[in-house]
Specification:
Blueprint: E1 11-20, E2 23-33, E3 36-41, E4 53-61, H1 65-71, E5 80-88, E6 92-102, E7 105-114, E8 120-131, H2 132-135, H3 137-144, H4 164-174, E9 191-203, E10 206-218, E11 221-230, E12 236-246, E13 249-261, E14 277-287, H5 290-295, E15 298-305, E16 308-311, H6 312-330, E17 339-352, E18 355-358, E19 362-365
């Protein structure tokens, strides 16, 4: 087939047709490609709109080998099965009672699509276990990565070494928030309601529990409804966000809160108790470009770190080198400590027109 690499595997297709008032209808089908099997029972609706579709679909294989090859997906090795009833037509269809398993991960629930007017998508899914470590290793690495972040630099020379138009191009490339128009027009072309819950997300660093993700897209306004996760060592992270069109741009209203959350990077540092963090971020902004959105942002950030031990290198990374050099001159015994006991940290940040002002923080540790 042109543009499609069909596997060189034995295949077989069987089906049963029935006569209806509208013509001929497929009422059952079974197809196999090596160990991969697709089976449907029940009628496929009349062409061209497939009106009256009411069938049960099953896709299964003892190995995901062919699914990876056919769809070019990085599905982990292991058995795969997808089962669900499909009801409706080509312009309005739903799958209720969907059940899918891939190498021990699972998802179940319902999906509905209505294309008759403005496309509308309804999703309500649940997982007992979603092994992100196996299903999406890049996402797992992004979530659990530790150590100092390394930024990828631009291939352009520093703007200070260039002149004229070249300097302007370099300066734009170095900006964290660009001044290009926000590309959210696609949000106006579809409506959607999505809810997903999971008992466990499995990461290489530990399990995240009680995941609740909920979002709504209506008339171009995106709302992240109260969304929560519980960390591997306890604590909870919650977020709510509204992004909606206003004039030629968008307004943003967001709140993110953490209660007793343990940073993933601390989990394997040792047996000593690690500190938990509480924070509450509330911000608002508006604009037609990312830079305008950020530069107009107002809000407040409250951070508290509870008692525990952290590696000394972490405090150094956060800017403690100079402070502890001074302390070490007064008390050289501090140099022997590899871990630092945090007794209390409190900080308050006020964001006005994109500028964050931090009030004097309270910091009490075993080294000062």
């Amino acid at each position: 087939m042109v543009g499609f690499d069909f596997p060189a595997e034995p295949f077989e297709i069987q089906g049963r047709l029935a006569r209806t008032d509208a013509g001929t209808r497929l009422v059952s089908m079974r197809a196999s490609l090596a160990e991969l099997e697709l089976e449907t029972t029940g009628p496929l609706g009349d062409l061209p709109e497939l009106d009256g579709t009411d069938l049960e679909l099953r896709l299964g294989a003892p190995s995901s080998r062919l699914v990876r090859q056919l769809l070019d997906l990085r599905v982990p090795k292991g058995p795969i099965e997808v089962v669900g009833p499909v009801v409706g037509s080509a312009r309005q269809a739903s799958v209720k009672g969907l059940r899918a398993t891939v190498s021990g991960s699972d998802v179940s629930g319902s999906i509905g699509v209505d294309l008759r007017e403005t496309p509308d998508i309804q999703v309500d899914l649940h997982s007992d276990l979603l092994n992100i470590y196996r299903l999406a290793p890049e996402l797992d690495e992004a979530i659990t990565q530790r150590g100092e972040a390394t930024a990828s630099g631009s291939d352009l020379p520093p703007a200070t070494e260039l002149q004229g138009a070249e300097a302007e191009v370099a300066r734009e490339a170095e900006l964290l928030f660009k001044d290009d128009a926000l590309e959210f027009d696609a949000l106006r072309s579809v409506n959607a309601t999505i809810r997903y819950e999971a008992d466990i997300w499995r990461l290489s660093s530990g399990d995240i529990h009680d995941v609740v993700l909920s979002a709504e897209l209506l008339d171009g306004a995106l709302r992240l409804l109260p969304t929560t996760i519980s960390g591997p060592a306890g604590g909870q992270l919650s977020a709510a966000l509204t992004l909606e069109p206003v004039g030629d741009g968008y307004s943003l209203d967001a709140r993110i809160r953490a209660d007793g959350l343990t940073l993933l990077g601390f989990l394997s540092e040792g047996t000593r108790p690690v500190p938990t963090i509480d924070f509450d971020l509330d911000l608002r902004g508006s604009g037609a470009t990312p830079r305008q959105l950020v530069s107009s942002a107002d809000g407040i950030l409250i951070v508290g770190v509870n008692p525990g031990y952290v590696p000394g290198r972490l405090l150094n990374f956060l800017g403690g080198d100079l402070l502890f050099e001074v302390l070490g001159a007064v008390n050289p015994f501090t140099e022997a400590e590899t871990d630092t006991e945090i007794e209390c940290v409190v900080a308050l940040g006020q964001l006005e027109q994109g500028v964050m002002a931090i009030t004097p923080a309270i910091l009490r540790t075993s080294r000062m």
